[in-house]
Structure formats: C-alpha cells, structure tokens
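Input sequence (127 aa), recorded before submission:
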Amino acid sequence: MKILHLEDDVFKRKKIERILCSAGADHSVWVKNLEDGIICIEEAQNKSELYDLIISDMYYPLKDGGRETEAGTMLLSILKDKGIDTPVIICSSARLRIPEAYECLWYSENSDWDRQLESLLRKIQEK
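Predicted structure, token format:
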C-alpha cells in the first residue's frame, strides 16, 4: 500500500507510522507541507503510480518554513480540481467533519484514533 502522509509534527508522524507498520502498510512518504505534498502527488500521477491513500493533518504550512494554516482543506480542493479520487483521511487534533474526506479522525488521548486508523487501513487494503 502506497501512502502519502502530510504532517508537520514529528511525534504525531511517528505514532501514525507505527499504526501504518502494524497494519502492513509497507510504503509511506512523509512531507511536512502542502507544496511538497502536491509535488509528490504530481510525480506519482506522471508515473501512473498513484497513492492508495493520503493521510493529512488539517493544519500545517503551505510551504517549507511557513506558518500553519488550514492546508488540509486546500489539499482536498486541489485533489478534486485535478480529478484525483485517492481516499484522504484527515487525522487532526481538531474534532472535524469534512464531507470531502474519506474519514476524519480525532487525534486525541481521549479517542481511539489509532484503532480507527488501523481499521480504515485494513478496509482500504481489502479494496
């Protein structure tokens, strides 16, 4: 399973990476900003090797060194404009409901986001 992960927090990235590994997701690419994520998506599209899944935070920089903004929403809009229908899981510390996303997970110690993510990964792998 080829996964693109957009996340600017290293600790959150590591926790999510552990879940990816335990679910058998063998290939993930990590970027810290929207610009780098779009470059990865376009390169994969040009090679006809699309990602199977995109996991995105909601708030991260648009460019390297930039300040956090609602980049997750922008990502969803860009994917729609490009006609890319790769499932996107928004994993954010903000409790969100975004209809354009495949799923939204509340990343919190008060939720079982890790089990939910693992379940979603297995569901996507079965397709």
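Checked by second reader. The longest strand covers residues 2-6.
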